[in-house]
Amino acid sequence: MALSLLVIVHEFGHFIAARIFKTRVEKFYMFFNSGFSLVRFKKVGGKWRFKFFSKNVPEKYITHVRENPVTHKKEETYEPIDLTTLPKDDWRTEEEHTEFGIGWIPLGGYCKIAGMIDESMDVGQMSQEPQPWEFRSKPAWQRLIVMIGGVCMNVILAFIIYIGLLSSYGEQYLPTSEVNKYGITVDSLAYDLGLRDGDKILSVDGDYIEDFQQIPMEILLDNTKTMEVERDGEKIQIALPDNAVERIIRHQKSFISARMPFEIEKFADKSPAKDAGMQEGDKIIAINDISTPFYQDFVLNIKQFPNETVNIAVVRDNDTLDYEVRLAEDCTIGVYAKPMLELKTQKYTFWQSVPRGFSKTGREISDYWKQLKLIFNPSTKAYESLGGFIAIGNVFPGTFDWYAFWRMTAFISIILAVMNILPIPALDGGHVLFLLYEIVTRRKPSDKFMEIAQYVGLFIILALVIYANGNDIVKLFR
Q1: How many H helices and E strands in the chain?
Q2: What is the mean pLDDT of residues 397-413?
Q3: Mean predicted confidence (pLDDT) in 275-280
Q4: What does DSSP assign to residue 80?
Q5: Beta strands of 45-153 (E only): which ranges?
Q6: Using an 8 Å Cβ cutoff, are 30 and 12 in contact?
Q7: Same CATH fold assignment for domains 176-257 and 262-337
Q8: Which of 49, 221, 373, 398 has the smallest count of CB within 10 Å of its CB?
Q9: How far is CA 299 from CA 19, 87, 184, 330, 417, in A?
Q10: What CATH number has the domain spanning 176-257?
Q11: Where in the chain are the domains?
């Protein structure tokens, strides 16, 4: 649903820009319609006509193939169909109106602009004399605006979504100051990088990060060199190794998290802890004389005792009590931990959300550019984590939630904008690159060059799609 919305918005950007400059848009489709279309509709004779499960008719050109007697290569020529010979209700006679539709291949969509070499590869049209209403006949600056229209619409959509989310929900985050009440807990990677359990993060490359959950991303994207922490009451400078980014990417999970005491908030339906006599509000401090002052310590140490009876010490009203608890194979005791850290929610009025939404959109674009730099940097091996359709689907929660849906839709809209502006032929960025060349040199690339570039670009995109989705499949079997 989200991807379909984003495709429509992106292609509508091209559509509206083309129409502003009086350029004909022949087709506007969601999904691809090779062979036939699920639905197609167009204004014919002043009335909207609809067709369902319709087989695609030939376009406005008849293709003739002959073999060159010298080179023995097949050569194609394109003969325009005389539209006056077609029935009055034939859609091809209404050239000025756009055909809208839904294809049967659920991969993206397209906006076919007359006189433009795009994914439709309509070389028949390009072999004819340019017409004033075609894309190729328009000034370079107009063509440039048409090409960036899709990217602009994706950015605008993300901006609008962020305004709506900020004004409706505000921003909720875990302040670093709140985490510093108890310090952080680290895994093996963070330990190797120089961090320790209980460290209180003061700065990252000299900057204080208000949102604790942004700290790993700052380290990753900005190639952080130093961190300042408070450890046992002393300030310590930690120099991160040169390969920190590569190791974090390969780690593929959070390497630092907030630690907190383990206080029982409530019990599960089947709870060994409740059966043993524990109560809500008890603070768990030890397992079999192993000190577990924090929740993370308990989770780490309880795994040693599957199918065993353990002694768990708790604090209740300043008294220390011991309980014998029989563990199952999974070592769980059937309790829910009480959140001991307070999230901060920043509320915004509608007008306050506008500048905040603008800055948030800009930051997301900047962060994704940095992620792309990591992906194309062979030393980081970030390309190994590149994902396809399965990865995109996994970013949405298992249960539907409007906030999560719109937040991820805005983020994916940013991704589409950034990816489409890359200077790769067949993408908007490839067309923009050639148009900038034309504006600077006043020399227009030939149609043949553009056709070859389009094929090269399509090959690159296809290879990336296969690689990304191949990564997804490999991860499923790991």
Answers
A1: 14, 18
A2: 79
A3: 92
A4: E
A5: 47-55, 61-67, 74-80, 99-113
A6: no
A7: yes
A8: 398
A9: 61, 75, 15, 11, 42
A10: 2.30.42
A11: 135-170+348-478, 176-257, 262-337
Q: At what angle do helices 402-420 and 2-20 cross, to 10 degrees?
A: 50
Q: What is the DSSP letter of 270?
A: S
> At which residue do the structure tokens 């000034």 appear?
139
Q: Where are the alpha helices (DSSP H) in 222-264?
A: 244-251
For residue 120, report the phi and psi dihedrals to the nearest 5 degrees: -75, -20
Q: Do the beta carbons of residue 78 and residue 63 sit within 8 Å?
A: yes
Among the listed residues 120, 113, 131, the one whose alpha carbon sits nearest the alpha carbon of residue 28: 113
DSSP state of 461: H
Helices (H), 286-325: 295-302
Determine the CATH number of domain 262-337. Answer: 2.30.42.10
Dist. CA 224–CA 193, nearest whole Å:
12
Residue 341: DSSP 8-state: S
Length of the chain: 478
Contact 109, 31 (CB under 8 A): yes
Amino acid at 459: F
Amino acid letter for position 344:
K
Measured distance CA(23)–CA(130) in Å, rounded: 12
Q: Give the model's pLDDT for residue 344.
A: 92
- The Cα–Cα gap between 403 and 420 comes to 26
**Cα–Cα distance between 402 and 408 in angstroms, integer?**
10
**Best CA proximity match to 54, nearest among 103, 89, 110:** 103
Dihedral sign from CA coordinates of 183, 187, 193, 196: positive
**Geometric angle at alpha carbon 396, from 395 and 400, rounded to 5°:** 170
Q: pTM of the entire structure? A: 0.80
The H or E element spanning position 181 is: none
Which amino acid is residue 78, in one-letter code?
Y
- Pairing mode of beta strands 335-337, 99-113: unpaired
Q: How many CB atoms lie within 10 A of CB 117?
A: 25
Largest CA distance in the chain: 101
Burial 198-217 (b: 16+ CB within 10 A, else e): bbbbbebeeeebeebebbbe
Rounded mean pLDDT, 258-266: 93
Q: Closest Cα partner for 230 from 188, 198, 190?
A: 198
Residue whose pair of structure tokens reads 């962060």 in the numeric block? 367
87-129 confidence digits (pLDDT tens): 777 777 777 888 899 988 887 788 889 888 766 555 666 667 7
Instruction: Give how far Cα 255 sits from Cα of 127, 190, 209, 260, 435, Å.
Output: 58, 6, 17, 16, 45
The one-letter amino acid code at 43 reads K
